[in-house]
Amino acid sequence: MKKLNYWFQRVKNIFHLINAFLANLYYGFPSKKIKVIGVTGTDGKTTTTELIAHILKSCGRKVSYISTVSAKIGDKEYDTGFHVTTPNPWFIQNLIKESVKKKDDYFILETTSHALDQYRVWGVSYKIGVLTNVTYEHLDYHLTYENYLKAKVKLLKNADNSFFNKEDNSYIYIKKILKKKKKTIEYKKLPVIIKNFPKLEKFNQENFSAAYLVCLSLGLKSKDILKSMKTFNFPKGRLDLVYNKEFKIIIDFAHTPNAFLKLLSEIRKKYLKKNGRLIHVFGAAGLRDNKKRSLMGEVAGRYDDVIILTEEDYRTENLYKIFEKIEKGLLKQNFIKKKFNLIKQNDKKIYTIFEKRQEAINFAIKIAKENDVVILTGKSHEKSLCRGKIEYPWDEYKAVEIAVKKKKEYKLGL
Q1: Are strands 240-244 and 350-353 parallel, antiparallel or unpaired?
Q2: CB–CB of 150/171 below 8 Å?
Q3: What pLDDT is stored for residue 5 in this prediction?
Q4: What is the pLDDT of residues 4-53, one digit of tens each?
Q5: Does domain 240-412 bear CATH number 3.90.190.20?
Q6: Nearest-CA neighbor of 251 among 382, 145, 348?
Q7: Closest CA to 372 of 330, 337, 323, 407
Q8: Which of 216, 151, 160, 218 is nearest to 187 (CA)?
Q9: Confidence class of residue 342 from pLDDT cuts 50, 70 and 90?
Q10: Is the pLDDT of residue 137 over 90?
Q11: Out of 3.40.50.300, 3.40.1190.10, 3.90.400.10, 3.30.565.10, which CATH number does the structure's domain 2-229 have?
């Protein structure tokens, strides 16, 4: 059935290609009139996209961009839609045309493997392509890691100049696919970045290194790039410390095994004190890559102390079937399932389940004690939760405010 769907998608991609061609034709192939920088990768692409934009703007260049979080053309911000990173061809070409009209120097486009594979970015003339990393993700669509990797590398092949991460596990495979492509730069964590940003997480050192080299290649001076980096505010929902009192609350968009590995290891090292627990609220999206779910559970089980499984856009898939896949990974790490009312204040290596995300967040914050860290992953900036076929309004930040208020009321006995 999966293979049948895969080949059906191949046929469907012809429609996307025609659509992209017509969009380019209608808007006059606008990307040929501006320098386009494309950023792709399993993780880190939004941070890298917005960081490059910030550096260029700080150094006096006119820039517009599309990222997972938003699209900014000049001073105007556009909503890209529900759960969307790279929009449809008509929207993309329209925004590039707007950017050209505003006489921007650069347009930065966060580019997904789906958009590359489906020809939704056909006709986009990339001056620079950046690939942050490639780990197991979206195999529900691509079927194999090799297909996924090849889709990502399309960006590097199509760009005049390419940058990819030498420290990523995908490096060897990317190098083989690219063969002898000219103007390719293999980057790694740069000493200049480590020296200037010693407290930066390891994965962000890689993102900063990529952005630094891209901007250097565009003629910016090293001192100006570093100065700009120091005023950069991370995109909403990226290692976002939203509460920092007797315990901490962090919101992050991490939703892959690799993102969990990098994020949770850094949180334990950077934020967690000796007697504190790492309390993690997460789920997995329905009708998406189900092979990653047990791996997410396994990685989470390696670093977390208390886990609360909950909804994350389960769509028409059975929510408890999603939990079962995650639980397989948790059991490998010797986690024990407990009913929420039986969980004690100092419990570790335990997990429980709440169907409703707000209730899960309420409970996580309710049981948090001094020095604990509560981490909420998977939703961050997104403004809806998909249940069945309906998108319900959602705000992760508002959910935290509600939960903190409830905890205070509970303490006061109200």
Answers
A1: unpaired
A2: no
A3: 66
A4: 666 667 678 888 999 999 999 999 999 999 999 999 999 999 999 999 99
A5: yes
A6: 382
A7: 407
A8: 216
A9: very high
A10: no
A11: 3.40.1190.10
